[in-house]
Amino acid sequence: xxxxxxxxxxxxxxxxxxxxxxxxYRYIVTARLCDEASFRLNRQGKAPFVVPVSGHEGCQVGxxxxxxxxxxxxxxxxxxxxxxxxxxxxxxxxxxxxxxxADDPCSGGRQMPSHWGxxxxxxxxxxxxxxxxxxxxxxxxxxxxxxxxxxxxACWFGEGATSEGDxxxxxxxxxxxxxxxxxxxxxxxxxxxxSQTKQMAVENVADRAEAYGFPGVVVDGSDxxxxxxxxxxxxxxARAGDGPTLIEAKTYRFFPHTSDDDDRSYxxxxxxxxxxxxxxxxxxxSYLTEHGIADEDALERIRTGIGEDIDRQIDDAWNAADPxxxxxxxxxxxxx
Amino acid sequence: xxxxxxxxxxxxxxxxEMASDDRIVxxxxxxxxxxxxxxxxxxxxxxxxxxxxxxxxxxxxMIVGLAIGMSLHGLLPVAEIEFADFIHPAFDQIVSEAxxxxxxxxxxxxxxxxxxxPWGGGIHGALYxxxxxEAFYGHVPGLKVVVPSTPADAAGLLRSAIRDPxxxxxxxxxxxxxxxxxxxxxxxxxVPIGAADVKREGADLTVVAYGLxxxxxxxxxxxxxxxxGMSAEVVDVRxxxxxxxxxxxxxxxxxxxxxVVYEDNRTYGAGAEIVATIAEEAMFDLDGPLVRIGGPDVxxxxxxxxxxxxxxxxxxxxxxxxxxxxxx
Lengths: 336, 328
What we know:
The structure holds two protein chains of two kinds.
Chain A: E1 3-5, H1 18-43, H2 57-64, E2 73-75, H3 81-87, H4 91-98, H5 133-146, E3 153-158, H6 165-176, E4 181-187, E5 190-191, E6 194-195, H7 209-212, E7 216-220, H8 224-239, E8 245-250, H9 269-275, H10 280-290, H11 296-318
Parallel strand pairs in A: 1-7, 2-3, 3-4, 4-8, 7-8
Antiparallel strand pairs in A: 5-6
Chain B: E1 2-5, H1 6-20, E2 24-28, H2 44-48, E3 53-55, H3 60-72, E4 76-80, H4 91-98, H5 101-104, E5 114-119, H6 134-138, E6 144-146, H7 151-163, E7 168-173, H8 176-179, E8 181-184, E9 197-200, E10 205-209, H9 212-228, E11 232-236, E12 239-241, H10 245-255, E13 258-265, H11 270-282, E14 291-295, H12 305-311, H13 315-327
Parallel strand pairs in B: 2-3, 2-4, 4-5, 5-7, 6-7, 10-11, 10-13, 13-14
Antiparallel strand pairs in B: 1-8, 6-12, 9-11
Helix pairs in contact in B: 1-7, 3-4, 9-13, 10-11
């Protein structure tokens, strides 16, 4: 059965210093504030479609922070705004996508927002069908191993994706060949409206790892450092040639599935409010103040500064050019 | 030049490409120890090793998905789907992922990769070892779909497919594998993707075909000339997508009559697109009705020889309408 990773006693034990923690905090806050701004823009009629991240920031930053920028490969899914921030996207990049501008680095305004991708940053483009990136992660890891690289591929998905055949097929192949890949399940207990009990008969997605011949780890998704610890171990294992790990971060999505969803039809307000008691932003801030990394005033200054910066980047993105309709038929093939 | 059958032509080309470029890996079911059910990769695992010749689990979606990942990280995968009939689980990976990768990233990502697929009937394959799949994928922008029908075209088009910067579905008609022999140049030549080929010159009508039907049409055209002195120009489509309209239309404009023959179910088949293209762009050059011959609209050919024969257009069934159109 899956190992459980408990709360870490200290960041020092994980090899993180104060700068790391503040950097992680900035990513977490940036993701949360981008989310809140996106919903404001949605209500203003400026952003037709928003995929929220709130609730998932801790497990996303915790896991993503354990990778090497520039050499490791990131295969996120649409809720992974905080993952792509760690991978190198700026808020402006996010909002260029939200507004479907020509300079949207993911797709030039072709895909819906939050369909990440950037060759420069090693973020692999994904589609809307669920779970299709799992075999891609295995293929990338196979290629990395074949080429003798130290590269690790990390692949994120919701628990909904684990019902797809591609999920099983990808993990199975990764296990057979002991590939350098880490699978991260952000289990928020709902595939849009379908609760976990109607998706699987087991309590933990991570339990399935045993069937693929590699470790499964359950971790509290609101505990950023516990997620980092689990991921660090998995990445080291992958880099050492010992094969994949399946990490399951138990988390919760505070907002509806997207701006077009109404979650009141499938979960009670009491349940959502209860889940917010485990807000990863607040929990991580408490860790910082309790360990003397920063006091509440310093954290407030960080939040204010990030908020102002995001507002400026939103303005820049909003004023950027729309895609030229004359490009509709371009870049279907290399020669066109 | 060396005379080869289609299997040998594909085997030798893939072998030589792998020998000269270690980015190329092949993956699929039964391709390593067994050398492929049609022996395309016979001996490869001994020469190139298990890392480059990968026996995969029985999971077609994964085979294509892995190939996409490999391509994204610097390899040149040549995936094999054992039979076209089994490619359907991979439809999402091919259509949603491989075909759309370049477009959806505004050109940021490209996917050089080849998916080899044995297709077609005439081998007692019944419902699930005889299917034609070209129309499903010819409909999808972002993919290239090639259908070589001779050993030389198979070799030249495979080399082009491996060197192409975009995903190529490489369809190999199973009945032609050992039936069709021909001279293949010994050097590393290519046949361009997107170029049809006039396989037989003629003056009285144009016949457009691919796969096994190409060879049936060539036989029927020989008989027409012997029995009536009239000549049919036979155009080998060679690439379903992108379709070489110019070569087809030039022939139709020359002869003034056109007949399209394909093995797939008639309705919405690739031949329907070819007929529509001729109707749209060469209507006033036509001196006779457009003739379209395809398989019947039933789920598949049966296992019984009588049922298989009843499904597949053959030389006799092509000859009669060919004669009628030539005389029109």
